[in-house]
Amino acid sequence: MTPAAEADPVLSVRDLEVSFPSEAGRVHAVRGVGFDLYPGRTLGIVGESGSGKSVTSMAVMGLLPDYAAVRGSVTLGTRELLGLDDRQMSEIRGRELGMVFQDPLAALTPIFTVGRQVVEALQIHQDLDRNAAWKRAVELLDLVGIPNAAARARSFPHEFSGGMRQRVVIAMAIANGPRVLVADEPTTALDVTVQAQILDVLQLARAETGAALILITHDLGVVAGTADDVLVMYAGRPVERAPVGELFARPRMPYTIGLLGAVPRVDSAERRPLLPITGNPPLLVDLPAGCPFEPRCPISVAECAVEEPVLTPVSPDGEHAAACIRAGHIADGRVDGAAIYPVPRAPVAPAAAIPRERRPAVLELDGVSKTFPLLKGTLLKRRVGSVYAISGVGFDIREGETLGLVGESGCGKTTTLLEVMNLRAPEQGSIRVTGVDVSDLADRRQERALRRKLQMVFQDPMGALDPRLTIFDILAEPLRAVGEANRETIGRRVDELMELVGLDPEHSDRFPTAFSGGQRQRIGIARALATNPSLVVLDEPVSALDVSIQAGIINLLNDLKAELGLSYLFVAHDLAVVRHISDRVAVMYLGRIVEIGTVDEVFDDPRHPYSHALLSAIPVTDPQVERTRERVVLRGDLPSPTDSSPGCRFVSRCPLHPALDATQRARCVAETPELTGAGGSDHLNACHFR
Amino acid sequence: MIVVATNLTYFLASLFLDPRANYLQLRPPRSPEEIDRSLAQYNLSPATPLLDRWWHWISDIVLHWNWGYSPVGVSVNTQIAFRIGVSAQLVLLSMILSTVLGIALGVYTAGRQYRFADRFHQALSIITINVPTVVASLVVVLLAIMLNQSLGTTLLFVAGAQSPTVSGFWPLVLDRIRHLVLPTVALTLISYAGYHLLQRSLLLDTINSDYVRTARAKGLTRKEAIRRHGLRTSLIPVATSVAFAVPALFTGAVITETIFGWQGMGQYFTSTISNNDINGVVAVAAFGALMTAIGAILADIAVVVLDPRVRMAGS
Amino acid sequence: MTANFPGPVPTVDLGAEPSTAEKRMTRARLSRRRLYLRRFLRSKGAVAGLVILGLLVLFALLGGEFTPYSYSDVDFAGLTAPPSPDHILGTDSAGNDTFAQAVHGLQRSLVIAVSVSALTTVISAFVGAVAAYLGGTTEKVVLGIVHFLLVVPSFLILALVSQKAGGDWRVLIVVLTVFGWMYNARVVWALATSLREREYVLAARFMGVGRVRIVLRHLIPNIGSLLVVTFTIGVVATVQGETALSFIGFGVQPPDVSLGTMLNDGADTVSSAPWLFYVPAVLVTLLTVSMALIGDGLRDALDPTSRSGGGA
């Protein structure tokens, strides 16, 4: 079944090359990309940051800055797009090519109503009068799922949530029935339940317009669920191309195989270590000859460094192509029958031998609440109420245990974590760290003693390290803060720490900018371990990293936990990562824990309707599973947590709620559900009816 | 704030200025008693305790809106009323000119980033913004003198706000314009560059913003996208800075007014200090503070008009 | 948009054996400092500014060697004499040698500008950073004072005080400093407030690092580039302020000489003895413009987000 036989490609890209000038020399961001896009089909372009996937889409749209040098050919139908000037391109953009961007918060002009912006998109290319355009704009907004579109069209972008804004952007992109839709990481900035909605809207939009879709993403799960064909990019070049099923089932390029092995699966209880790809992607300046993946490739041979391989068909029908000279030897993720990526040793935590109840608790939260004042007025701010950031949060973490705290943005997970780190008595409830109640801390000395036991790793490996300090000073800071003054002791400890996280101690006199993202995160972890803490709080520690790097960090965290008997409080929005690393998991919604239990119980048998929906929204990196499984797509967005009235906070979006009878529904609204479990189980959930 | 600042100035001025100096040079010389008596009628005599003078001064303002007299008996109210008009002509005109010129240049050069026109205007603006006012104004004067000499007639006057001998409506207007040109040019010259550079950098920020890119993806050309989507957003901070510049312009016209011999607020400011005119100085200070407040309010209004986000939050 | 385009990211592959990694590291680190220098030097304006400033400083320091006159010497034989071999830049109406006066005036103006700018930068850095980090009441009080001082017509009070002081340049420095730090303090405060939210500051706090230490170790070094720029811009502003004040007679006063007083003298005789105006006018303009160019060049060179490399 060759699509080429059915129709001519709507968009053809050949030998596309893009380069930019930079301090270090010319950056060759895209180096010879080519693909055909057929009507009605979805092409997924996958790659890590810097792989050139976004630049490719910008080149197609003609939106690259003037100083970018673009070569090659982009033909839409029969028309060559490269070389058209801005005016000629503007005739095509919006009418034939529609685009959806990554950051919906920034993509809309803040000073115009969304209706006006959609109207503009219509009027640029169609001769419509004001009323007709407005009517059509409202229809479009309605189509993409903006509730009450006629009224909401008069709102400004800042009155919409991220998901709603992305819908508006999609409405603008399809306003003129384009032949090609380009979506550049359309869901990366969104929460997972909203991501599921937006992917549905995109498919709907594609179906409605009959357009072909280019979906650019780093998320293999998204590709597995939506793409028909996949192009994997590395270092500015396509390294593998195949129909989606074929690619996930029989990858032939070691990089693709590595990527697939590096992603934890949310649907698997198996706890094998992930397969990280060592090293970092190359700088795209003065690339050496040979395969760019060669330095990181576990099966490279001398020939690999000689010449850069081109995409060559590896399947009889020519649909599957890979750029690897050893592709012929690779089958089922193995080369000549041997595993390409050696499976790392699985760490065994000594604590796991002791039953949970017998291990001491390192962190206990009981009924912790935190409110923020709700202010009104521009000049004179007065308090008109309180926002419950978290309310009645309680859990405990035992020695050697990892608790994953999950939920969407605004659910209160970060607030919970900051409440713990502040070491101050909470507004309500109690916090005990290694058995010490923080409200009993009398002075700074006692506080410092407790801080020794409690350390934190931050999300952003760039932001968490002071750029003006050397790695040595960064690692020495926590030691000095707890009163260690002996230079020699500090020096020895810093060397130890560097080795512990897999860095060369020789490099401790460098500044953070000399390290890559993954290495910086290792430094952040080393810093947290400096004082030999019992509990490490991890705030989204891998979300800023590429998958191939992320796997290494996750493995490191697991090793350290086993080796040092650490406990983790792990906050993340990526549930696959949480499943992989946690022993227990707590699901938060609008400041409350709605479900808590061991990780397998919660993931395999979610009780609360929210946990259920959240888990079902996560794409799985397996096209077959992904396309056949049943999904619960939540309606709407997270409401704002201003309301402190009783009742279940999930009521407005609950898929179970409409199915209940009237008295049951009344109970949901009137009575705040408590965390309860069946029998003596510690798998608890806060739903009256589950 | 205005009230506190004004009262503070009153005490400072009373401490630092000695109105008796105005009488010391008079021939025939007066005795200290005579001087005190003359000053006492204007509430300026150092013989009266400072607090009494202050009370007298503030009650006159609050009850009669009378800001006092200079050491030689000139009413501050009359002076200010007259001078505000003079300054306003100069300041408002140059403010409008420099804003329009600055924004226009900013928009023009931002669209041509790093090309010749951009580099040229940027260099020019960096020079004009950094040349001290004195130098800039005097250069304008020199050029005007050269122009007049080459024409053989005085086309543009380098001093004063108007000629005393002209009568009739149209001749008067023409005369006014001929006086107004040079100081306006001088003031505009020193203030446009700030708006130019600000507008340029703000517009460049918005040109590279995601929403301008979205607008281009809809099918607007780069120029249209910048004009329709980038410009108004980038105007917000410029409008704020123009509004805040109002007070600075009034007092900042000191040099210009001095050089061009205009009897405006700026010139009043120097003459009151040199003449130990305590009440005059304080009135100037109050005026300055009032202008700052007006500037702040104007800035707020501008933001509210231009930015729907603030409008929403306010209502 | 920026995020989509790759820039030069100096990274090190730790998988490589230590020796090559070592070499690459050293290169990465050296290039950081060299990068600033290279970015600065690429700006032609900044280099020109630096050269001009260098010449001006040389002139102020060594200019006295080239003339037999001191700035206060009076030559009754040549009042308001145009430039001649005897007085290379002529004399003024009192018979002072213009060249000698220019050297002295430039010295005076430079000393005032540099000291005021240095003092205001230090004060504003400390006040701004402390207010931002401590927050709460301290922050409110400091901002209140700053805003109040910004409303007070400072130019007027400056004039009042310095006139009373009889034009002593040391008093002028003090007064200009007292009324000059607020604006910058506010800028520093704004920047430090954003730094306060940075994760590395949060990290330090969670490690139990003391407040003063956080301000000194994390906040101030990270606003360093801003301070460097503030300093150069401050010099320009002070020169402008000083010349304006001296011009209207409230700054440096005779018999002392600054560029401002020279301008004042020159202004009266713009058409009859233009050299008296040209000399200080050229000097002061060169001084402010060169400093401004240097400031611009530094800002571009030190600002990590500056994209001057991309389009130039």
From TrEMBL, chain C:
User: Topology versus the membrane, per the UniProt entry?
Assistant: Multi-pass membrane protein
From the UniProt entry, list the residue stretches annotated as the region Disordered.
1-21
What Gene3D superfamilies does the entry give?
Answer: MetI-like
Q: What is this protein called?
A: Oligopeptide transport system permease protein OppC
Concerning Pfam families, the annotation shows: BPD_transp_1 (PF00528), OppC_N (PF12911)
Q: Which residues cross the membrane?
A: 41-62, 110-134, 141-163, 169-193, 214-237, 275-294
Q: Where in the cell is it found?
A: Cell inner membrane; Cell membrane
The record's annotation in InterPro entries points to: BP-dependent_transpt_permease, MetI-like, MetI-like_sf, OppC_N
| Source organism of this protein record | Pseudonocardia xinjiangensis
Q: Can you tell which superkingdom this protein's organism belongs to?
A: Bacteria
Q: What's the family? A: Belongs to the binding-protein-dependent transport system permease family. OppBC subfamily.
What range(s) does the ABC transmembrane type-1 domain occupy? Answer: 106-295
- Alphabetic keyword roster: Cell inner membrane, Cell membrane, Membrane, Peptide transport, Protein transport, Transmembrane, Transmembrane helix, Transport
